[in-house]
Amino acid sequence: MTRFQIYKIPSTRYWQVRFKHLGKYIVRSLRTTSESQANELATVLISKYLKHPHLNHSPTGSMTFNDAANLLFEQDQHLVDSGHRYHLMNKMQKSTLKVHFSNTLGLVPIQEINYTLISDFVNKMMDDKKSLATIKRNLTLLSKTLKYCHRMGWIQFLPQMPPLSSKSVSRSWISFDEYQKLLNYLIKTIETGRVTIQFRQNNVDKELRLFITFMINTFLRPSDVKGLKHKHIEVVNNGKTQY
């Protein structure tokens, strides 16, 4: 008997089933709120697929964007477990889905998602004063999920993503006096232990001050640090000074 998984998602009260058929994952709503009945219906459904291998692989019209995204996260977890993706990737994706999609575009069947719905989704985020970075992150998850659905044969066409115009905003700057006050504060509070900062269960003390000094002197942005490698550092000694 083919192995299967029944589960529930927040957007529906019915049990869902997921199983593999001819190399592709099939997802169906079992249209029941009873777990025992769901197991029976799943067994009958899989038997039907085994007797008729030619059955359409497409999901039923009840498969929503939330359903498809959660299946995508299952695939991504294999990449995380094997070390090929950032270990917090799925946690961030699930958070994005829950906060920005679950009660909006996430409830729409995947076959019904088109350019107009996506544009309305973007306009709603703009009306809610969401930042450009947030809107782009949401569109990235939306595009990634729809491409996954297209690869699985669940949708025939990929809708286009609406263009976003990015407004150039000058970053605020910090004066030398403000910089000195910041360093003094870090020395007096963080390094002496008066205030405790933790990052991934590790206490941060003088590293924070050294990190800020390093960024100020190199014009490096915090988001660029994760890509910094030893090969990017060069020690220069011109006879008088070393830097």
**Annotation, overall tally of beta strands:** 5
Do you know the CATH architecture of the largest domain? Answer: Orthogonal Bundle
Q: In angstroms, what is the radius of gyration?
A: 25 Å
Structural class: mainly alpha
* Fold-level CATH name of the largest domain: DNA polymerase, domain 1
**What count of domains describes the coordinates?**
3
Can you count the helices?
7
Order of helices and strands: EEEHHHHHHEEH
Strands of the widest sheet, in order across it, are 1-2-3
Main pleated-sheet profile: 3 strands, antiparallel
Helix content: 40-55%
What is the CATH class of the largest domain? Mainly Alpha
Provide mean pLDDT, rounded.
Answer: 84
What would you call the shape? elongated
Termini separation comes to 67 Å
Q: Could you list the spans in which at least 5 consecutive residues all have pLDDT below 50?
A: none
Which percent band covers the strand fraction?
Answer: 5-15%
What descriptors fit this protein?
three-stranded antiparallel β-sheet, DNA polymerase, domain 1, mainly alpha, 7 helices, two-stranded antiparallel ribbon, 3 domains, elongated, 243 residues, 9% strand
Structure overview:
By secondary structure, this protein is mainly alpha-helical. The mean pLDDT is 84. A hairpin with a 2-residue loop joins strand 2 and strand 3 (24-29). Helix content is 44%, strand content 9%. It is elongated and about 80 Å long. Strands 1-2-3 form a 3-stranded antiparallel sheet, covered by helices on one side. The chain folds into 3 domains: 4-51; 65-151, DNA polymerase, domain 1, CATH 1.10.150; 176-232, no CATH class.
